[in-house]
Each structure stands twice: as structure tokens, then as C-alpha cells.
Amino acid sequence: MSNGSSSNNNNTARFDAARRVAIFGGTHGNEMSGVTLVNLWTQNSAEIQRKGLEIKPFITNPKAVEKCVRYVDTDLNRAFTQENLSATGGDELPYEVQRAQEINRMFGPKGSAEAYDVIFDLHNTTSNMGCTLILESSKDAFNLQMMNYIKKAFAPASCLVLLNEHPLLKYSTSRSVAKHPVGMEVGPQPQGVLRSNIFEAMRVILKHALDFISLFNEGMEFPPCTVEVFRVLERMDYPRDANGNIIAMVHPNLQDCDWEPLNPGDPMFQTFDGKSIHYQGSSTVYPTFINEAAYYEKQQAFVTTRRETLAASAIRKA
Ligand SMILES: CC(=O)N[C@@H](CC(=O)O)C(=O)O
Ligand SMILES: [Zn+2]
User: Fold this and answer.
1) Most ligand 1 atoms within 8 A of CB, residue of 27, 127, 185, 299 to mutate
2) Which residue range(s) make up the domain with 193?
3) Catalytic residue among 185, 221, 228, 292
4) Is residue 52 part of a domain?
5) Residue nearest to atom 12 of ligand 1 (CA)
6) Domain count of the chain?
7) Where does this protein chiefly localize (predicted)?
């Protein structure tokens, strides 16, 4: 097989060796762990080198990094739409759209056989999510096996998996140019700040991820497994007035409680005069990205998720 996977009679999915891997930092210029790690590895890549692997650390939004802002013109991690990638206009286009086109040329083209095999995109969140890996597809056995490997290698510390394949809430990420896109989201960490614990956790998870890829490339077969994921269900906005100003905050019972169950009737917001606003859903959900600073402008106080167990077939190099 030249691209993607196929199944043989043993239901072992075959994937090509993952030879070309990129590590993106600075997709958001104020998320400092990824920026710092990628800069470090650009200077000295010994730590991320693996035999038979070409690994490219890369700062995706250098202008935003320089200014220490999320983005300059528009969010780079929403910019990889087919429309943007084929837009004409050159210098006239928003900076991040130009940048998305360059990145697509270097690491893609998105959806093609020439695209990079794996892209890790390193992010930080102000919410109390801990270590989270983000997937865009429940069907990618290679990525699911990678999640299973990382979770086991990282235990007893925990690393959760957020799955965003929601038809409306999914967005066109920088990593989406790769065949196997993997987001990494570690928090809590304020924007523009480096915290050693968050930095080290990200570094260790990436080490396990690269170890998985080299074992796979060496021909190791990974038996069928299951992976617990949290599937994105719904975006919850802050209550707002007619002018769009928020009129309530995340409730203290919910603040910092990422991944903990939110039941119908539980408080989720608190108005400035102390009134609680309760969750009206019909079933228990698991909120995450609670009070993420970057999401105020996106009208999102948190996202709800549902816990699911996904099955991954065995995989082996083609
Ligand atoms: C806080 C933050 O930037 N989160 C990322 C999540 C992701 O990479 O999918 C984003 O919104 O692009
Ligand atoms: Zn980010």
C-alpha cells in the first residue's frame, strides 16, 4: 500500500513506515512550552532523533511568537481550509493564510501521498486539562495505537485523549496537513508563561510518541487494543447580554474540574451578583477547556464531551 491502510485476513491494518515526522510549536505564539521545546530542538536535535526517522521541529507562526500573541491576523489553527490553501492574492492575504499555504507546501499537500506522515502540534491551555492528546478521527488505527502506547508508557501519570470529529465544531488545524495529525494540549499554563512541570510533561509525552513510531518502523506488531477517548459534543458559551458582554463567570464548582462529570442540574456559571446557572442537558457530560483564555473571543466557556471506548485493530508496517 502506498498510502493509508488496508486490512489482511488477520485484520491487521498495514501502514507505511512513518519516516517523515514534524513537531510544530508556536502555532499559537503565546503558548510557551511548544515554542521553547521546538526552539531547543532546532538548536540541538539529539533528544528527538530516532534511527530511520526524519524529524523536523518547526515554528509555524514566527510573527505571533515574536509578538507573543496567539495570532497576528487570524487563527493559524483554523486556517487550513481548502479555500485558504488554494486562495490567490499572495502578499495581500492575511499573514496566517500565507503561512498556511507555505506550511502546506512544506509538509503537505494536505490529503496527498506526499504529505508528512505524522505532525505533532504542541499547545498549552489555561484550563486545568492536564496532559491531553487531540485526535481528529476515530478511524485511524495508527493514531489510536499511538494513544494506547503513550497512555501506558506515561502511567501512572495520566494522559487523556480528546476526539474532535464533530461535523460543525471540527476546525482546520495546522497538523491536519499530515496523514496522522496529533495535537498535544498541556495545562494549566497562562499565556506567555513557562511552567517547568508543564514543559517536562510535554517533553516526556513527545518522547513516548517518537518511541512508538520507531518501534512501529522497526516492524513491531501492535495487537488490537481499546482506547478511552472524550468525544467533543457541544460548545458552551458564557451567558451574554445583548451587546455580547459576558454576564457570568465559570462557576467555582466547575472551575478547574476539566474531565469531571457535569450532571443535569449542576451549577456551571455564576453571575456577578452570585446567582448560579445550571446545566440543562439531559445526561452526564465531561467538560473540558474550561475557562480557556483564548476561547472568550470564540464564544466558548468550555466544551462538553462524552466518554467512549474505541477499538483499534492490530497494526503493522506494510
Ligand atoms: C487553547 C488552544 O489553542 N487549543 C487548540 C486546540 C487544538 O489544537 O485543537 C486550538 O484551539 O487550536
Ligand atoms: Zn493553542
Assistant:
1) 185
2) 5-229+311-317
3) 185
4) yes
5) 77
6) 1
7) cytoplasm
Q: Which of the four pLDDT bands, split at 50, 70 and 90, describes residue 214?
A: very high
> Could you give the dihedral angle defined by the CA atoms of residues 186, 188, 189 and 191, in that order, rounded to the nearest 10 degrees?
90
φ, ψ of residue 35 in degrees (nearest 5): -60, -45
Question: What CATH number corresponds to the domain at position 33?
Answer: 3.40.630.10
CB atoms closer than 10 angstroms to residue 163: 22
Residue 173 falls within a domain, yes or no?
yes
303 belongs to a structural domain: no
Q: Which ligand 1 atom is the nearest neighbour of the CA of 134?
A: 9
183 lines ligand 1 (CB under 6 A): yes
β-sheet bridge partners, residue 117: none
- The tens digit of pLDDT for each residue in 99-144 reads 999 999 999 999 999 999 999 999 999 999 999 999 999 999 999 9
Of the pLDDT bands very low, low, confident and very high (cuts 50, 70, 90), residue 2 is very low
Residue 178: inside a domain: yes
The answer to pTM > 0.90 is yes
| 22 burial type by CB count under 10 A (0-12 exposed, 13-18 middle, 19+ buried) | buried
